[in-house]
Structures are given as structure tokens and as C-alpha cells.
Design a protein that fits this description.
2 domains; Arc Repressor Mutant, subunit A; 3 strands; Four Helix Bundle (Hemerythrin (Met), subunit A); mainly alpha; 65% helix; single chain
Length: 222
């Protein structure tokens, strides 16, 4: 898996906000000038965005923004929430293993440390995206349901749906730290519900968690 950079974060949010339109060809030189960086960070970021499903190959060497609609992203996001809610319900009903609970709690502790200063930088956003992806992957794989995993994987192919694609549509960057802190508190609540064998609460918290992700994207996906 390729690793995102601050330039990746900037380009991702430009796509979310519509500043780079679906189908638009992406010229490295122009993007570098817009972002005030050299062409190399842009060149490194585009394959990462392709891996996330946000851009596609256009010609032999170029990329273009993947064509998609807001409605597709919202529908896939809600479906992912329902599927992960079902995974959490299964874990709470059957009882999660000691090892799985430890892995989840280790991620909670990692997130607590990452967000402790309540500051928002590209590095914090990248770190949280990685943590978020691992957390949600554990939820889904922990349920040990191959069909469920397949459905979630298909949802995650839709732009801005995968847990590792953390992007914000709000103009006020001061809201970003608040949103991530709230989302991480929801992670705590999900794990608590699973550990306490509360399937209804575990499922509800996962569905509510998706609303937070939708809100983080701002009006662009509402």
C-alpha cells in the first residue's frame, strides 16, 4: 500500500470540494503551481489517490479525477455503515476474542495519543486515516463473515467511502480537530458496547459513526 503525504491530503480535499471536477485531467505542473510545491510531491500523490479510487489512469502516464456522483458516495457510505453495524452486532452477540479486544483497545490508545493536543496538521490527519482504516478492518474481519467482508470491500471502492480516505469539506479548518475527536470517542463507545455484549448499542453506534463521517465531508456530500 502506498503512503499518503500532505500533498495527497490537499489534492484529496480539492476533489471532495469540487475544485478538481470528475473527469478532469490532472496536470502535474499546474497542480504543483496551485499548491506551491514542486512536481515531485504531486507525482508521488497521484498513485496514492488512484489506489484510493479517487483518480484513474488517463493515457499512458496521466491521471484524471474519477467520475462519480455525490449520491453514489452517500449511498455507499450508508451501506457501509449498515454492514459494519451488522459486524459489530455479530461480535457483541458471539463475544469478541480477548486478542481482538486487545487490538481494538491498542488502536484506541494510539488514537488518544495522536489527538491529545487537539491540533490538526496534515500529519495528524494522515495518522488518523491509517488508524481509522485498521480499526474498521478489525471490526469487519473480526466478525468472520466472508460475504460481509466482500460487500464492505465493494463499498470501499466508491470515492470517499473507505475509512482510510479521511477528507474534510468544511472551510473552517478549526472544526477538523473537533470532528476527529468526536469520531474517536465513537470508536471508544463501539468497543465498549462489543465488550459489554450489547449488540443493539454496538450496531447503533456504528451507524451513527457513519453520520459523523458524512458530516465531516461538509455540504459537498449532503
Amino acid at each position: 500500500m502506498l503512503h499518503p503525504t500532505p500533498t495527497t491530503v490537499q489534492l484529496r480535499e480539492m476533489i471532495l470540494k469540487g475544485e478538481l471536477a470528475p473527469g478532469e485531467r490532472l496536470a502535474e505542473a499546474k497542480l504543483a503551481e496551485q499548491l506551491g510545491v514542486s512536481r515531485m510531491p504531486v507525482r508521488q500523490a497521484l498513485p496514492v489517490l488512484a489506489e484510493e479510487g479517487l483518480v484513474v489512469r488517463a493515457g499512458q502516464r496521466g491521471y484524471a479525477v474519477r467520475a462519480h456522483t455525490r449520491e453514489e458516495s452517500v449511498e455507499a457510505l450508508h451501506l457501509r455503515g449498515a454492514l459494519e453495524g451488522y459486524a459489530a452486532r455479530l461480535l457483541a452477540e458471539k463475544g469478541a476474542s480477548v486478542e481482538l479486544l486487545k487490538q481494538l483497545r491498542d488502536l484506541l490508545a494510539e488514537g488518544d495519543a495522536l489527538l491529545a493536543d487537539h491540533t490538526m496538521t496534515a500529519e495528524v490527519q494522515i495518522g488518523y486515516a491509517s488508524l481509522n482504516a485498521r480499526f474498521h478492518d478489525l471490526l469487519v474481519t473480526g466478525a468472520q463473515n466472508a460475504l460481509l467482508e466482500g460487500f464492505v470491500t465493494r463499498c470501499n471502492l466508491v470515492p470517499f467511502v473507505a475509512p482510510r480516505t479521511v477528507a474534510f469539506g468544511h472551510k473552517d479548518r478549526r472544526q477538523y480537530a473537533d470532528i476527529l475527536a468526536y469520531a474517536h470517542r465513537q470508536h471508544h463507545a463501539i468497543v465498549e458496547a462489543i465488550a459489554a455484549r450489547q449488540p443493539d448499542r454496538a450496531e447503533f453506534m456504528c451507524r451513527e459513526h457513519i453520520v459523523t463521517q458524512e458530516h465531516s465531508m461538509g455540504a459537498q456530500l449532503l
